[in-house]
Design goal:
With 179 residues, this protein is mainly beta. It is built from 2 helices and 10 strands.
């Protein structure tokens, strides 16, 4: 009985969340949002450096109310690569700055109904994300609202605001072929 309990406690210790280190990796931990979650998928796991990679982004609203997200586009979702062997993130200068309109309008937001999913497909070249040939990477997507909650209040809609933090996907393994 003691051995089983000891093994059980050891498994619990191994499976318990490890606090994030206070370095750049902390920025890329999967978010533990109660409001929304994000998942990403690709058609394949191996691509050429200049192939077009289609990334499906799925955001799920886990609440019992409508939530509005700033128009999900290539400007609002950022994609990041981490080299699997060196564990280093690709330089941030490879990421374009998001476009934020000066006067947001309700038409700039997308409604995600309660317990529903919003899916959008993005097309990227791994070379544009800073990848090199013959390497394995972990791909992650992030969404951060550029607007404060007060913007939603002014528009009369419940928005996922900058105060709600960042939504991050789990890492997805992608290989860039040597050809």
């Amino acid at each position: 009985m003691k051995i089983v309990t000891g093994v059980f406690l050891m498994c619990l210790a191994i499976l318990s969340p490890i606090p994030a280190q206070s370095d750049e990796n902390e920025l890329f931990q999967k978010s533990g949002h109660d409001l929304l979650t994000m998942t990403i998928s690709t058609r394949k796991s191996e691509y050429g450096l200049f192939d077009q990679i289609q990334i499906d982004v799925e955001i799920t609203n886990h609440t019992d109310k409508d939530l509005y997200l700033f128009d999900i586009s290539e400007y609002d979702i950022s994609f990041w690569l981490k080299n699997s062997s060196t564990k280093k993130w690709i330089a941030k200068d490879k990421i374009s700055e998001p476009f934020v309109p000066q006067s947001p309008d309700i038409r700039n937001f997308v409604r995600v109904k309660p317990q529903s999913k919003l899916t959008k497909t993005f097309t990227q070249k791994l070379a544009d994300l800073g990848a090199d040939r013959g390497e394995n990477y972990e791909l992650i997507a992030k969404y951060h609202s550029p607007f404060r909650r007060s913007v939603g209040e002014q528009l009369g809609i419940p928005i996922f605001s900058s105060e709600d933090g960042t939504i991050s996907s789990e890492c997805l393994a992608v290989r860039v072929t040597a050809q």
